[in-house]
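Ticket #4471: structure export looks truncated?
Reporter: QA, pipeline team
Priority: medium

Steps to reproduce: submit the single chain below to the structure queue and open the exported record.
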Amino acid sequence: MDLCHVPAAREKGWYLALMAPNVKGPNYAWLDPSRLYCHPQGLQDCMADLLQPFQGDPIDMVAGIDAMGFILGAAVAATLQKGFLAIRKAGHLCVQTLAQPYTDYSGREKVMEVRTDAISPGLRILLVDQWVETGGTMRAAIQLVERLGAVVAAPTPCPAGVAAICIEDSEGGQWIRERYKCAHCVPPGLQPRFDRHQ
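Actual output as written to the record:
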């Protein structure tokens, strides 16, 4: 799809066609959503779809997960006029941090960290990442902010939650959906294709 073209009928997820398939092999994600960030209307509609389920919910801060979650997270924070917290890969913050080990979508063991001076108990955080495949990265981010006393989700009413372009129907994706209010951009009819990486 042309980066200047805007379809006449813009249904939820129309911009997913802007994403590019992996051409570099198994060490990379199967699909690259970053091309849709280059399309002004695509990015705006993606933000609207991600935020729609949270309309009227109290959100104090947006947190994005290193690295691609920074793009979406910062855009969400700017749209909501809220602050943005970067959840980083370990070793990149020069301040006091809290760390959390996790296994990413490729099966690699990693550690992420967050600064300890930005979260106070009860802070309602919307966690944003580009993609939730196995759920390991998002789960570690949830554990980090909850260990610092923040609220990612609670029983009714849900004050914040999790947002990503796609939350796959993996075991980890199901765990997140069962416990947290979630938003993603994939229409139900396309979800099985995304789950199978087609």
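Status: closed, not a bug. The export was complete when the record was re-opened. Leaving a note from the reviewer for reference: The mean pLDDT is 91.
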